[in-house]
Each structure stands twice: as C-alpha cells, then as structure tokens.
Amino acid sequence: MKTKIIYSLLVFCMTVSFNSCDLDSKVYSSFAETNFPKTEEDAESLLTGLYAYFKCNSGAVNDNSNGVWCWPLFTTGYGGWLGLSEMTTDEIYNIEHQEIFFNWGSAFDTYSTYTVSRNISRATYILDVLDKSNEIPEETRKGLMAETKCLRAWLMFCFYDLYGPIPVVTDPTKLENIKYEPRPSKEEYFNQMVKDLTEAIPYLYDKTNNTENWGKVNKGVASMLLMKLYMNDHQYDKALPYAESLTQMGYSLAEDYSKVFTEEHNNENIWSVPSGVQMGNEWFFYMIPPTCAEVCGIKVTPYWGVTMMPWDFYDSYAKDDKRLAGIADRYTGPDGAFYSREGNQGERLPYGAIMVKYLLPKDLTSAGNIPLVICRYADVILSLAEIENELNGPTDKALGYLKQITDRSGVTHTIPLDIQTSKEKFKEFLLAERGRELYFEGWRRQDMIRFGKYIEYGQKMGYPAKDHMVLFPIPPKVIIESGGVVENNPGY
Predict the structure, then answer these.
(1) How far is CA 418 from CA 313, 387, 397, 425, in A?
(2) Number of domains in the chain
(3) How many whole angstroms from its chain centre is CA 23?
(4) 376: CB partners within 8 A, 6+ apart
C-alpha cells in the first residue's frame, strides 16, 4: 500500500504544479523511501501536490486516480468549499444549480468535492516521511512539517465545515492499509485540527507578503483558522487570543477597499491563491455575462457568468458605499448595447448584480491571471468586534472595531443608533456588514450558521430548509463503498 501511495504522490507531483511567481515542481524519474526526500527541494515537491488543491482552477488539479473529476477548495464554480459555502447563502444566486437552494437530500452528490479529502492522508504520509528523514537539516524539516500540518488542518477544517467530522487518516501506521473506518467524534476531530495548527505556528513563516514564499501558509493563516474554529464552536474566549495575535503580525487595513483585490501583496492580505499564468483563476469566467464587454469601468472578455448577487442583498448596501464600485447593476455589451437593472436587463440582470471585485485590466482577466483573496485582515477586525460583543456585550470597544470597516467604506452613518442596546442588535448589523465586506470570500455560510440565521434564511425564502441542513449529506458513493461503516449525517 505504501508503494502505491508513493507512486500516487510521484504522479501527482509530475502532473500538477503550484505556482507562486510561477514556481514549478521538479520531475523525478523514481524514488523510494530509502532515497527520497534527500533535499529540501525533494520535500517541497511533495508539498506541491497538497498546495495544488488550494487553487481555484477547477480543471488543473484532476489526477484521475479516483476516476472522478474534482473541485479544488477555492474554485468559484459550483463545487468545492468556496462554491458550496457561498452559493447556498443570501449573497449568491446561481442560475444553473437550483438544487443548492436547500433542495438537497441524502442523495445530493458532492463527491467531486469530498474526494479532495484524500489529501489529508497524503499530508499524513508526507509528515511521516519528513519525520523519518535524516537528510534534511532539522530546522528546515521542522518548517516543512509545520507547513504540512497547517495544510492538513486546513483541509480538515473545510470538510468539517461542510460535513462535520469525516473519516481521516492522521496516524501514519494506518497508511499501510487504508480502509473505511467509522467517523470520529467531533471532539477527536476538532482536537486534531487544533493540535496540528498549534504545533505548526512556531515554525511557520511570519508573513509571506512580498516574499519568495508568497502563497505558502504562514502564522496568520494558522492563527485565523484557530480563531474561526473556536468562534464557530462558540468558544469565544479561546478564539480571542488568536484574533489578538493577528493584530501583532504587521497586517493593517488598506486605505482603499479596491486595492485589496488589485494589489496582490497589499498589507491587508494574509493569504490568497497567488496569481500566475498557471493558476487559472476562474473568477471572471463565472461572474461576467456572455453579453458583457465593459463593466465597472473596465473592459472584460465576455464569459459564462451564471453567478449573481441577488438584488435583495445588493440593496442592503447604502448608495454611497464605496464597495459598490466593484458590484454592477449595469454594463455594456460588445456591440455597444447597454444593459441595466431598470432598463434592458438582458439574460442575467433579472437574477441580480454582477460581482466584479477584481478591477483588473482585460489582459489579465482574459488570462485568468489574478489572485483570489481568502484570508484578510478586515475579517480579523470584524471577528474581534464579534468576540468582544459575545464576551462583554456591545461595548465601545466592539463598536470601535466595527467602525474601522464602515469608516473605510464611508458608511458609518448606516450603523443603527440603538446598536449598543443589546447583543442581538449588534449581531444583526454585524452579520449584515460581514456579508457586505466579505462577499464571495467563502465565509458567508458558516457566518450565517454561527449567528443562527442560515436555516431561518432558507425558510424565509420559501426553500425546503430544515435544521439538519447546516451540514451537507455524506456523498452516497462514500456510504455505499464503505458498506455502511461511514454513516450519514442525522436527518438524511
């Protein structure tokens, strides 16, 4: 079995590259436990395979070893963690996939997303190989193992978010004979993520902005994941130290909201899928309508464009909100035709507004060569507001954090006068503001669940939303192949 894992990793590293400033993996003709890895470059070639699934180009990571085309975590398409975390919320309307509006049942097939969880076992294998390596200097080896632990925990985090605890292999002795096992308890799974992240932090890069390590995980990523783990579990006292530590890492809010998405290495950006000709970012493919040539003041290539921001959500922005500069209720077609919400809506505008956000010139957007922001400092500031409110009520401190975000967008005047009269009043506005600030960055679904509004939203919209739908069903293929060893989530 171990030989098969080694072969799989070799094939994967030969066929998939992770690009940060176009860093490419090296091709090795053969290797075995006795001769690989011997150098840092050898070890990093293994990590390349893990980083590949933290991309957003849905076509560039399929190794075909499981017979199923798969979604990477951050694709802006239908599947993957990002897609499922956004398209089932009030922020997004997807024209093509009506089943995501709480129309899913136990037969809902997300295996093309679930299959990426196999890389948790790959991370375990890499950790085992690095742990046994005598060829790589100790400090270098510790750094590589920290990266691997952070990536393993991040993968576990994404699948925990979607499905709850799933069977994973974190014990290297079980790599000899991987088989389906019952799902671990929530406590066991949760503690493993915390263990990996806390062990990784001391050896991770401090920051990777404007360095040759841009695109690799860092202390900020690990701290942010720990913060979110505890917040989502309503352990706000344990989330606080990690949120506060992020304020000491040198990050800051950009003066201009738009710069966060057009200047890749800005100081607000904790981690992004990095740009590069091989990254194949699909944002514009899914956002720009086929009749659109110019929108938000930039020329673009017409694309498929089936992902819209519902008008109800768009209308929650104040008209003078600076963030609307990247959200369009009108555009111009290749033939000069003008489309608008109040006039000729064309095929797409009846469903909602166009999310541009990445205001980049056509020569970049047509190639897909743009970064995709996943972790940024504005989220930390809003999280500190939430934590303070949960622990101490709607204090001036909590309001101060919130105002940092609304001040930048020019909408502090929209904060209700009675926001500090109760925790619930504060939470109501904060959840709405998190949506307006962080739209389509992957956090909306878990935000709505944490605030107790996810199922309520679905029911309000007339969707068949039920309480158990805060988790997706385990894909039928997994349950069938396991012979029932892997049980579905309650309610399915």
Answers:
(1) 22, 19, 16, 7
(2) 2
(3) 22
(4) 260, 268, 269, 270, 441
Residues 49/122, Cβ–Cβ less than 8 Å: yes
How confident is the model over 270-289, as a mean pLDDT? 84
Q: What is the mean pLDDT of the chain?
A: 90
Q: Give the distance from CA 115 to its chain's centroid.
A: 16
Range of the domain at 333: 283-367
In a domain, 373, yes or no: no
Query: Are 70 and 190 part of one and the same domain?
Result: yes
CA-based nearest residue to 472, from 109, 187, 82: 109
Domain edge (last residue) among 367, 400, 415: 367
Same-domain pairing of 41 and 133: yes
pLDDT at 414 over 70: yes
In a domain, 111, yes or no: yes
The secondary element (H helix, E strand) that includes residue 48 is helix 40-51
In eight-state DSSP terms, residue 183 is: P
Determine the Cα–Cα distance for residues 37 and 126; give it in Å rounded to an integer: 10
What global pTM score does this model have?
Answer: 0.92
pLDDT of res. 134: 87
Pairing of β 354-355 and β 307-308? unpaired
The CATH number assigned to the domain holding 47 equals: 1.25.40.390
Q: How far is CA 52 from the centre of its chain?
A: 14
Q: Is it the case that residue 421 has pLDDT exceeding 80?
A: yes
Pairing of β 372-376 and β 269-273: antiparallel
* Domain end marker among 337, 367, 397: 367
In a domain, residue 444? The reply is no
Amino acid at 12: F
Which residues, other chains included, contact 17 with Cβ-Cβ below 8 Å and sequence gap of 6+? 23, 24, 25, 48, 52, 278
d(CA 81, CA 373): 14
User: What is the Cα gyration radius of the chain?
Assistant: 22
pLDDT tens digits, residue range 306-350? 999 999 999 999 999 999 999 999 999 999 999 999 999 999 999
> How far apart (Å, rounded) are the C-alpha atoms in residues 100 and 62?
24
Would you say residue 445 lies in a domain?
Answer: no
Which of 436, 397, 120 shows the shortest CA–CA distance to 257? 436
